[in-house]
Amino acid sequence: MIRYRARRSAPGTKAAEGAEAPDHGISLENSSDRYERFTALGNQLIDIHHRLLDAVDDLRAGGPPARDLAEHCLAFCAAVTRHHTGEDSAVFPELARRFPELREVLAGLERDHEIMAGMLRRVSALAGALDTAGALAELDGLAALLESHFAWEEKRLAAVLNSLEPGAMEPRW
User: Fold this and answer.
1) Whether domain 34-163 has CATH 1.10.3210
2) Which residue from 33, 47, 82, 160 lies 20 to 30 Å from 124 (Cα-Cα)?
3) Given a cut of 90, is residue 101 above it in pLDDT?
4) What predicted TM-score, i.e. pTM, was given to this entire model?
5) At what angle do helices 66-86 and 103-128 cross, to 10 degrees?
């Protein structure tokens, strides 16, 4: 289930409680116009962040039994890891090359990724051991860090990503 709580949204837009993601008139999945796809990279980043935050909120709701929580935690941890690996290996190096003034910001975001990787390993281990209380406690800390990290990343990078020319990069996040 995809839903968007009141959170940060694309620069210049507002998201109301329970609202859908802002419609920018661009279909990221089906666009045949490469320019449309690449002018939306910053907005795509924000959308991915919303989905990950919604997923951690669902996990923290604590509804599923321990075995189901373990499976959901492992899937969530894999999704966050894949997202951050894509940023660290492709997006951030390209942004650092094109925008040297962002190198310090990017280095800070990479440090956050390292901290979160440790937290994700702990969540996976606790959930795998069926320690629901421990996994949920670790998820609370992870959720707080993700929220802060995503807000900072979006503030610093969304407009930069939206400014890139068509074909500048194809992130795998």
Assistant:
1) no
2) 47
3) yes
4) 0.72
5) 160
